[in-house]
Input
Amino acid sequence: MPSAVSTSHFHHHEADPATLMLSFDHFLDLAERPLGTWPGALVVAAIAVAVAVGVHRIGARILTRIARPYPLMSVVLRYIDNPALVLLIILGIGFMIFEAPDTLPFIGVLRDVETVALICALTFLAARSAGAVGEAIVQAHPLDTDDNLNARRIHTQARVLARSVMVVIVIIGFGAALMAFPSVRQIGASLLASAGVAGLVAGIAARPVLGNLIAGLQIALSQPIRLDDVVVIQGEWGRVEEITGTYVSIRIWDQRRLIVPLQWFIENPFTNWTRNSSQIIGTVFLYVDYRMPVAPLREELLRILEHAPEWDGRVQVLQVTDATDRAVQLRVLVSSFDSALNWDLRCRVREGLVNFVQATYPQYLPRVRADLSTDKDHHHVDFAPPLERTGAQAANTANTPADPVASRGEQTGPDLRAHSAASTAPAPAERT
Output
């Protein structure tokens, strides 16, 4: 009798898992019943979306508090906030679509749309994550410092590499979305049969895009240019304002924008004034009479530079670089921390030396000598023409050639209509 009781008790416990399994299956059956009709499916979808939004908000608050002491993580969370919400909502709706019975009208089409939407959401999240990492690195290295060479290098690498990764992610996501449709897969299989011709045509058509993409990677790694670099491209002076995945935007000193393809920087030479350092030496040319003593001018140059905040104290030179049949050419070299300051310093030095010569040695300004003679009497007349420039001649000094020292400093003689020629700097608006 006790053995029978124990056997009965054993069978009672052995049946419990089956009972639990039946109860769970009964629960799933009850949960799937509303999905048999569209009104019930819409109600389930609304509940799934609400749950997804709630999970996103709770998770966002928890992660934000955890990442608060870490600025880089905070930037990444801020960038992926919306893509994560979109992904959770699509997953919630997908739960309803894939759990619905096959007999529900249009369910097959919705499943294809859900697959494409899920791929797009994942692509969106991955691309934003890549951009967030790049932006976090950029914000960790601000440009508003005295020596921002290393920061500009990191900015260029982070932005170009992040955009290149984003392009690759989008291409992969687009291909995955197309492969979700059986008809597209069949087209792809037929194209693979003629892969040689198709590859040749695609390569020719995509050559500019692929060339710029590869050039962007080369610029990011070798860095012939960086953000905020001062460059001279085909005679145009400006700063690198933006480096995208296909082109570089150069902010010219007069606030124009020069758009240059990335591949151009790999295939063509250009001038970079801030490749290793922003320090620069500027040139000022003056023309004076042969009788003008040089020593007072050197003393005046030193006095001007000592009171000039733009001078960095490295270089101050005044030399006689040419002597023509009419005047003597003086070249002044001065240095500054960057090109904008050097432009102001050159203007200050040019104006100061001209004022010094006018006030102290006006008789030694450049002169034109003429010999007016007859057979009976000889008269020698010295005269100095006015120094004012005409409008067209003054406009020439606003040019920004890449090497104005060679183009203007090697003239055969002085321009008597100007005290000095323009130097290597752009117009004053370059500081903008």
